Each structure stands twice: as structure tokens, then as C-alpha cells.
Amino acid sequence: MEEQNRDTTQTTEKDEENITEVIDNTEQDGEQQMGSDESKMESLKAEVDQLKQEKDELHQRVLRTQAEFDNFKKRSQKEKEAERKYKAEDIVNELLPAIDNFERALQADVNDASEGFVDGISMVYRQLKDALKAHGVEEIECVGETFDPTVHHAVMQVEEEDTESNTVTEELQKGYMLKDKVIRPAMVKVNK
User: Fold this and answer.
1) Which residues contact 82 (CB under 8 A, 6 or more apart)?
2) What fold, for 87-191?
3) Would residue 136 be called left, alpha or beta, if left means φ above 0 and alpha means ψ between -120 and 50 degrees?
4) Whole-angstrom Cα distance, residue 135 to residue 177?
5) What 8-state DSSP symbol labels residue 145?
């Protein structure tokens, strides 16, 4: 019986060792699993952070692209408005020499034989001026005005005592504006 007790004791000790070994292995496996879970969590957090950063960068790119597009639309709108506003500029520049010639023709001496002809030229001249006015073309007033280099082109200087200095004394060629833009500055004489 003693042998049986000894065998039982040895078996019990072996079982206890096996159980302890199993527990130790389980704990090690658990620690390894926890370690691998933690490393997975770390890698997932890193991936989430990277994705957040990429999302933020993409969001910023979208905002910049949207702002650039808005600026493009505004710039295009302003260009179209300016184009519409000054669309008559080219034709006006081509018509101004003809208007100058009409004015010179109307300044010529009129006799009885040419009176009807001059009346016809005068009517055509008025129609041209009215058409230009309808498109926003205006003459630049200058005689008696203070010289303004933005709308006047001084070609001569004179000394007149009864006129203030830097005043336009005579208009040599009419100047014109299209809305708020100078198409052709007026050629003038200016008092010193």
C-alpha cells in the first residue's frame, strides 16, 4: 500500500507539475496574445492616424481647388463684363478719323450751290454722333479746363496773360471716352 501511496503521490506531483506547466504555458500564451493584440492595436492606431492625415490633406486640396475655381469664375465674369462694356471700342477707333473728316468738311465755306450737300453731310454727321453716344462714346470737354494728362495730350504751350497757368486754351483734335475709358485723348494747347 505504501507503494500505491507512493505511486499516487508521484502521480499527483506529476499532475501538479503538468498543471503548473499548462498554467505557465497558458499565461505565456495569454501574454503573447495580449502582446500581439497590443501590437495590432498600435498598428491599427497608426493606420487610423495616417488615414486621418490623408483625409485632412485631401480635404485641404478640395478646399483649395474649390477656391481656385471660384476665383476663376469671378475673373471670367469680370473679363466678360469688361468685354461687353468696351465691345464698341474697336469700331469707335475706326470711325473717329471719319468723324474728324466730317467736322473738317463742315468747317469749309458754304455757298448757295453746295448748301444742300453740306446739309446732307451735317445730317450724316449727327447720325454718326448719335449712334456713338448711344454706345457710351462721349467727347472730352477741354477748352477752359485744367490740363489733365489722363484725358489731354498737350502738343503746344502758349503764354496768355488773361488765362490761368496750366489751363487748356485751344482744342486741336477732339478726344473721346467710351464709358469711363479714354479712347483718344484730346490734342490741346496749354497755357504755361
Assistant:
1) none
2) Nucleotide Exchange Factor Grpe; Chain A, domain 2 (2.30.22)
3) left
4) 11
5) S
Q: Which residues pair with 182 in a beta bridge?
A: 177
pLDDT of residue 116: 81
| β-bridge pairing 176-178 and 181-184 | antiparallel
In whole angstroms, what is the distance from residue 64 CA to residue 70 CA? Answer: 10
Q: Cα–Cα–Cα angle for 123, 126, 131, nearest 5°?
A: 125
Q: How far is CA 107 from CA 33, 50, 98, 121, 179, in A?
A: 109, 84, 14, 11, 28
Domain boundaries, the chain: 16-86, 87-191
* Cell numbers linked to 22: 499548462
The per-residue pLDDT for range 57-107, each reduced to its tens digit, is 999 999 999 999 999 999 999 888 877 777 778 888 888 888 888 888 888
Q: According to the model, what pLDDT value does residue 33 have?
A: 59
State the amino acid at position 189 in one-letter form.
K
Task: Give which of 154, 162, 157 is closest to 191, Cα–Cα.
Answer: 157
Contact assessment for residue 183 and residue 161, using Cβ atoms and an 8 Å cutoff: no
How many CB atoms sit inside 10 A of residue 131's CB?
14
Q: What is the mean pLDDT of residues 126-139?
A: 89
Q: What is the pLDDT of residue 158?
A: 85
**Is the predicted pLDDT of residue 174 greater than 80, yes or no?**
yes
**Residue owning grid cell 479746363:** 145
